[in-house]
Every structure is written in C-alpha cells, then in structure tokens.
Amino acid sequence: MQTDIDPRSLIGRKAYDRNGTKIGTVDEVYLDDATGVPEWAAVRTGLFSRDAFVPLEPSKVVDDSLRVPYDRALIRDAPDFGVGRHLSPEQELQLYHHYGLDIASPAPDRDFGHLAGEDPPS
C-alpha cells in the first residue's frame, strides 16, 4: 500500500474487491507494532454484518477508495476477531494464511496489529 498516506485517512473510505464490487467501508486500520506501517484494515461489510480484515499490502488507494485484490467471497469468509482490540500473533497468522500471504514466523513475544492512533502495547 502507499506508505505516504495517513492510515487514519482510510477510515470511512469505501472498499472494493478485485472485480470492483463494493465490499463495505473501512472501519479501523491496524499498524504493525514493530514498524508502525499500516498492515490491516477492518472493513464493515454491511449494515448488520461484521468487519472483515483485509491486508493493506498489496491493496491500493485509488481515487477515494481502497482497492483490495481479493474476491468479495474470500474477504467475507476471513476470520472474525472483532474490532477495537489488538490482534494477537496467532490471529494475524490466521489472516495471512487465509489470504495466502507469506510471512516469516514471528518471535513468540512479538505483538501485532495495534489500532492507528493508539500507542503500541509495551
């Protein structure tokens, strides 16, 4: 994803899948604790639905929307961890596996995915 964009500015943007189908609206952005780089977005998938986590890499910001290079069905089937909480290393690994993304095994004590605008856990 573009690294020059403020992750908080993603909140409220519409998100679309690889085919241009609307997924929903970005609710939250999660940063990597070690690097501070935006890593995940929680997208509200419908009025009575839940938030689905989508990877921000290799997603792109195009015009005023987030373009996610995955099918809507895969995104809606992503593991549901709720929003407003810190992602554990195990949860983040589940998301990486769900999207078929490679990640080196993290150190067991490494924390992932704090919310943009919050301090990383100590």
Care to describe what's here?
- The protein has about 120 residues and is an alpha+beta fold.
- The chain starts with 13 loop residues before the first strand and ends in a 7-residue tail after the last strand.
- It has helices at about 70-75, 90-100, and strands at about 15, 20-30, 40-45, 50-55, 60, 65, 115.
- Strand 5 and strand 6 (about 65) form a beta hairpin.
- Strands 1, 2, 3, 4, 5, 6 and 7 form a seven-stranded mixed sheet that branches.
Topology (elements, then pairings):
Elements: E1 14-16, E2 22-31, E3 38-44, E4 51-55, E5 60-62, E6 65-67, H1 72-76, H2 89-98, E7 114-115
Parallel strand pairs: 1-6
Antiparallel strand pairs: 1-2, 2-3, 2-7, 3-4, 5-6
Listing every helix as H and every strand as E from the N terminus to the C terminus, the arrangement reads: EEEEEEHHE
Question: Structural class per helix/strand content?
Answer: alpha+beta
Strand content: 25-35%
**What is the distance, rounded to the nearest whole angstrom, between the alpha carbons of the first and last residues?**
26 Å
**Mean pLDDT value:** 84
Task: Tell me, briefly, the overall form.
Answer: globular
The Rg value, from CA coordinates, equals 13 Å
Give helix % range.
10-25%
List segments where confidence is low: pLDDT < 50 over at least 5 consecutive residues. Answer: 105-110
Largest sheet: 7 strands, mixed
Instruction: Count every helix, treating DSSP H or I runs of 4 or more residues as helices.
Output: 2
Number of strands: 7
